Amino acid sequence: MRAHLAFLVRWSRNSALLLLLVVVAIGLLSCSGGGSQGGGTSVTNAAPPPPPPPPPPPPPPPPPVGISTGPVANLLPFSDPSGSVETFTTDASGQIDTTGPFFQSLGTNGRSCGSCHQPADGWTVSAADVQTRFNQTTFDANGVASDPIFRIIDGATCNQGVDLTTTAGRTRAFTLLTSRGLIRIALAVPASAEFTVDSVVNQYGCSDKNTLSMYRRPLPTANLRFLSQVMWDGRESSALTSTQDITKATNPADLLADLAHQSVSATRIHAEGASDATPAQQQAIVNFEMELSVAQAIDNVAGSLSDVATGGAAAIVAQPFSIGVNDPLSTTPPFDQNVFTPFTPWVNSNSSRKASIARGEIVFNTKSFTVFNVAGLNDVFFNNGPAVVTCSFCHNDPNLGNHSLSLPLDIGVAGPNTNFLGLGYLPLITLRNETTGATIQTTDPGVALVTGKWADIGKVQIPILRGLAARAPYFHNGSARTLSDVVNFYDFRFGLGFTGQDFTDLIAFLSSL
Predict the structure, then answer these.
(1) How many angstroms separate the CA atoms of 96 and 98, rounded?
(2) Own/partner pairs for 9-15, CB < 8 Å, 24+ apart?
(3) How high is the pLDDT of residue 56?
(4) What is the DSSP-derived secondary structure letter of residue 512?
(5) Which residues contact 66 (CB under 8 A, 6 or more apart)?
(6) Buried b (16+ CB within 10 A) or exposed e, 379-412
(7) Cis peptide before 333 (omega within 30 of 0)
(8) pLDDT in tens, 204-258
(9) Which of the four pLDDT bands, split at 50, 70 and 90, describes residue 13?
């Protein structure tokens, strides 16, 4: 009996051990992936477990500041240092379509018109926003930027000999674009020019004496129906360049043709296009531009500029215009010096800011001072004598502020000895008169690179003044960083004789346009 019990004990221990081994084996099979529903797949034939799914891609970076990526509603405000700027379009949709040819890349380098002409910057670019865009931009191993405004062809200080592979090199290469909002414009000296180029001292390279590098601000692509000249030097509205002079008899057909030609030039040069924009694309770009009006709409202190006043972009749509309107250098009809009138209702305002803006408008319209040695004015109309003028004398186009006739002037902005704001950031060009041997130094020959005339050296067109607060810096070369600099330039150049209050009020007015 005892022997039988001992056998049962040993059998039960061995059975328990065997059962434990079976359980462990099953567990190992399961852990190795060998088990399957409804089948006995062996361990050696088991498929490896599937890899974990890849992590989701990071969200795309936000668009650079100032870049429009979708439809822009009519009168959508964009903040600027003085308040907000707004655009009004006459397009039937009531919104700015950012999908048309104006915003399409029609060349080979990814650029569109919209790369340098943004609603947030009054349809040009401000240096501050370009700097922000530069800070947000990534560059690949070859130095190609994700933001196409930073292309070596004309965004850099020179299109050769620059380093775009290092941060320091890129900073140097785009310094004029980020600090002054300047694009490099390469212009050949006319074959029949009355002058030759003695020397070019260009700290950035690009010192060719046959093709000069000019550094200029992009002009706004809004309020264009009021133009009497296209481009700073008028090269897109001149029979000398196979475009059309803008005249009263031929306007607006001449302007529309010139703007179409400009779209081709921009595609070929700035966008490095291999072919012209098509006629349909040209027409779409011109139509888009002609529908746009831009102006300051909100002041940080005064609030809306179109409450009882008639500031803002919408009022511009109803502004009448014809070539030569209100020209002070013509006898008929008589010149009305009260060129700007939007803020007349604020003259007696209880708001100190509104009253200041209104007084600034009066200063602009009526405060006289004496100008001298202005090529295109004193020599042509005043027998080289002084002229007593107001701001509105040259900025005569009602409520827009350009000149209603083509009147390029040299007020000294490009002259190293006449612009106290300093031009050390620009190349210095020495020109020699072919007949007299006289020499002149300038940073930009201006209209002379179109006409070839000695008398046109330094002349540029008078720009439209709406939307100023959104598009610093000022003058064609960006030498005035602020509107205060603009007024101080005129005071230094001509001795305005304005009071401190006049200065304050005038700047308040200009920032409200």
Answers:
(1) 6
(2) none
(3) 56
(4) T
(5) 118, 120, 121, 125, 126, 129, 132, 133
(6) eeeeeeeeeebbbbbbbbbbbbbbbbbbbbbbbb
(7) yes
(8) 999 999 999 999 999 999 999 999 999 999 999 999 999 999 999 999 999 999 9
(9) very low
